Description:
Blueprint: H1 2-50, E1 58-59, E2 74-75, H2 78-86, E3 90-95, E4 102-106, E5 131-132, E6 144-148, H3 167-172, E7 175-180, E8 186-196, H4 216-229, E9 244-251, E10 257-267
Parallel strand pairs: 6-9
Antiparallel strand pairs: 1-2, 3-4, 3-7, 5-6, 7-8, 8-10, 9-10
Helix pairs in contact: 1-2
Amino acid sequence: MKKNFKIALIVYAIAVVGFVGYELTVYLNYQNELKSIKNLSELIETMESTSVSSEPVETTPTIPSSTVGETKPQEILPQYKALYEQNKDMIGWLKIEDSVVNYPIMFTPTDGDYYLYRDFEEKDSKHGLPFIDYRSNINPRSTNVLIHGHNMKDGTMFAALGKYQSKSYFENHKTIQFDTIYEPGEYEIFAAFMTQIYPDDSTEFMYYQFIQAGTQSEFNDYVQNALDLSIYDTKIIPEYGDELLTLSTCSYQVNDGRMVVVARRIVSNSKGAIS
């Protein structure tokens, strides 16, 4: 009996050590990821403050065949050139003031989920990086740029979107800075809602299917559905021709739930996202 108890105790101890070791490894890996992202942000700040001059970098990301429009070479903003040289999948930077949202945005239209579990160095990461939906586009720009990000239990990535369930939080965080590598942009939030992923044959509003407005009616239909679902009235109604930005993350109120924040572009400035 005592022998069996000792064996069980040893097995339990090994399991505990293994679990603690695993959790510590996960924690240390994520701390390294956070440090890496912070370093990227600081590099942008340095590039902006020193006004580094360099040869223009012209590039055109791969465009999905479904995208309508003409692709034109564009010069990359000085503050993003160094990061682009490190990883040419980077298409922009997203920032919400006074929040953890301050991340590079990735774009791999031929492999839409590539950064779901990869970091900026393309190493395995359970946090991944926010990425643009493969159907959206930057050059030429689609009506709606849909960005996906994880809702991490540690409060990182797009977990902060859940705070937009509170109108008071919205009142203090009304704008989103989303720069592409080509141009800066500021967006004002017009709707925040909770929904879910529906079966393909459902007649429910599927926000994630709206990318390019073929007509004014399609645009208005998307906007009205978003406004109808919105948790509160923001008093903002986008108009046909506005450029839209949709941030999407998982939520757990229902199976395949989603928390969604939608904004329209209002301002471009010369300084970029990191100030």
